[in-house]
Write a structure and sequence with these properties.
The chain is α+β, with helices and mostly antiparallel strands. 38% of the residues lie in helices and 27% in strands. The strands form five sheets. The protein has a five-stranded antiparallel β-sheet. Strands 7-6-10-9-8 form a five-stranded antiparallel β-sheet. The longest helix has 48 residues, at 369-416.
């Protein structure tokens, strides 16, 4: 960096030098060794937009860091050279655009200053000038940032902008709704591809729209770095049936586009436009990131990344749907969120037709995960409601006579010591336990008293209670309790009932014995997890979704009421039950209860 000189030097020039500076067509300025520009001619002010007379100006203000270092190196050696030094560097206007100049630097030892005379390096030579002036098609050259470097007379006539209005500005012929398309085409040019006969829409200075066919090729420096692109356009409006678009003014179109963007960027559905001609998605709404967790940028770079998110069982039908092999205009399928969770989506498609052939596809995708969950819950709740109503009636009708029968059977057994009395009493107790489960279904939350509890204590007590029964069935019951678990607000008796049901089911699933593990752990500091893992016969995957339904059981004499009651209890505790199972290998049941904060 140059050290700013606090004092502006005054340079004495004779009348001849003044006249040369004023009337020279070259860019001329003088500066001291600190890089402070002391004076400059009118060409300097026109090219850079700065006037050293009005503001303190340094060489670093008109050159980038690399070129500034190059100039500074010349300044350090110029006093020792007898000839002028020549360098090439870019000079930037205060509005941001840059021009390439060839500089001749001379040192004035008498005044201790440097004179810099610059000559602009143009792309054009004689044959290029001839081509640009004679071709009837609009031709333009833009740099890596998309800013105009040069345009021919045909461009000015076709679009209405003069070169002096365009130079250094972003290509203005791209309509607002096609900015993403231009960005995509520019990236292809930067990567070395050529554009051939690409159909699009351009905008004139007066706001009218035309259909155009464009071809473009990249331009490289000797080191292989992309510096610019040359584009040739041709007006093909007369060949396009959609000529009504030309009657719209640019202001109306921009307003409609603005409304469309506001709508598409704020709706919950994913809006996507895919172009078959370039095999690329040209638009994806912001909801894509909200629903799937992946960035829009990654989708624009490679739209096939979405296929990796689709559930394997649904991938084939989605591809058929997307590639027009399916007549259905709507599809429901599963996808994986970035965090690994599964979501249900519903997509609708509408082809956009050009010259009787679909060239773009519009899809609207809705997240229906909550709807799918509600459908399952409603089905279960409908069954639970019916069973609850049935349970209320049965419980009242059966409990009274059952109490009398049980009492008299006990008296009869005490008096006669009949060998069948024990069998009758055990079966009556089974009926009584079923009635108790019916009552739980009828009034699941009756007299519920929640308290802050240590889940490890409940698991330990329940496991100790069930160990004798486990030993009778040759099952080794173990516990693995995580220390320092968060407390849970629960109803102790109900959670013990759920745990007893799960342990009994696990023991029944191992008729030949085995290992049974009950363990606790913490999940994300938000949930306390309780797991029951057995080595039993397992459950088939098609049966797992039906677990918890009334009267559905894997056991021969099971009623399905135990799991159904367990589901209702855990639901009442704001928790969830998950099943993982593999046939002939065992089952893992996981209960998640919210940690108390």
């Amino acid at each position: 960096m140059f050290v700013e000189n606090k004092t502006m030097l005054t340079i004495k020039t004779d009348s001849l030098l003044d006249w040369l500076l004023t009337h020279s067509n070259d860019l001329v300025f003088a500066m001291n060794k600190e890089g402070l520009i002391l004076m400059a001619n009118p060409v300097f002010t026109m090219v850079t937009g700065y006037d050293p007379k009005e503001q303190k100006l340094f060489i670093r203000d008109i050159c980038d860091e690399q070129d500034t270092e190059q100039v500074r190196a010349v300044l350090n050696t110029a006093p020792f050279n007898q000839t002028s030094a020549v360098i090439t560097s870019e000079i930037k206007h205060k509005n941001g655009y840059k021009l390439l100049y060839k500089w001749s630097i001379t040192y004035d030892s008498e005044n201790g200053i440097f004179f810099l005379i610059g000559d602009e390096i143009s792309f054009c030579n004689s044959w290029f000038d001839a081509f640009m002036s004679t071709t009837s098609d609009p031709v333009y050259i833009f740099n890596r940032e998309g800013k105009i470097i040069l345009a021919n007379e045909a461009f000015e006539k076709s679009y209405g902008w003069a070169l002096k209005e365009l130079k250094g500005k972003i290509l203005p012929i791209i309509p607002f709704h096609l900015k993403d398309e231009f960005r995509f085409l520019k990236e292809k040019l930067v990567s070395g591809e050529k554009i051939r006969n690409y159909k699009t829409i351009h905008q004139r200075k007066d706001g009218s729209l035309i259909h155009a066919k464009i071809s473009a090729t990249p331009v490289y420096e000797t080191n292989g770095q992309f510096v610019a692109a040359i584009g040739v356009t041709r007006n093909i409006t007369g060949r396009i049936e959609a000529a009504l678009l030309l009657d719209r003014t640019a202001e109306e179109l921009k307003e409609n586009e603005k409304k469309f963007m506001e709508l598409s960027e704020n709706i919950n559905d994913i809006l996507c436009i895919f172009d078959f001609s370039i095999h690329q998605a040209v638009y994806i709404s912001a909801s894509y990131e909200k629903i799937l967790g992946h960035s829009k940028e990654s989708f624009y770079k490679n739209y096939r990344i979405f296929l990796k998110c689709i559930h394997p069982d649904d991938k084939k039908k989605f591809i058929q749907f997307a590639l027009k092999q399916s007549l259905d205009s709507e599809i429901e399928y599963r996808v994986y969120h970035k965090d690994g969770s599964v979501k249900w989506l519903r997509s609708r498609k509408a082809p956009i037709v050009d010259e009787k052939n679909p060239h773009r596809l519009l899809t609207v995708t809705q997240d229906i995960s909550s709807l799918k969950e509600k459908e399952l819950l409603l089905n279960k709740k409908d069954k639970l409601g019916a069973v609850g109503q049935l349970a209320a009636g049965i419980a009242h009708e059966v409990r009274n006579p059952l109490t009398a029968i049980k009492g008299f059977t006990q008296l009869w057994g005490q008096e006669t010591h009949h060998k069948y009395s024990e069998i009758i009493l055990s079966e009556l107790e089974r009926i009584e336990s079923i009635m108790q489960e019916f009552l739980m279904l009828a009034k699941p939350h009756q007299e519920t008293k929640f308290a802050i509890q240590n889940i490890n204590k409940i698991v330990q007590e329940t496991a100790e209670f069930m160990k004798p029964e486990a030993l009778l069935h040759n099952v080794e019951l173990k516990t693995e309790l995580r220390k320092h678990l968060p407390a849970v607000k629960l109803e102790e008796k109900q959670i013990k009932q759920v745990l007893l049901n799960l342990i009994k089911n696990a023991i029944d699933a191992m008729p030949e014995g085995g290992n049974l593990l009950v363990r606790t752990r913490c999940a994300n500091d938000e949930f306390v997890c309780l797991e029951v893992i057995d080595e039993g016969v397992g459950i088939s995957q098609d049966r797992i979704p039906r677990l918890g339904e009334p009267f559905y059981s894997n056991k021969e004499k099971g009623t399905g009421l135990g799991l159904m009651v367990s589901f209702k209890i855990i639901e009442h505790h704001q928790g969830k039950i998950f099943f993982e199972s593999e046939e002939k290998k065992g089952t893992k049941v996981e209960i998640r209860l919210p940690a108390y904060k």
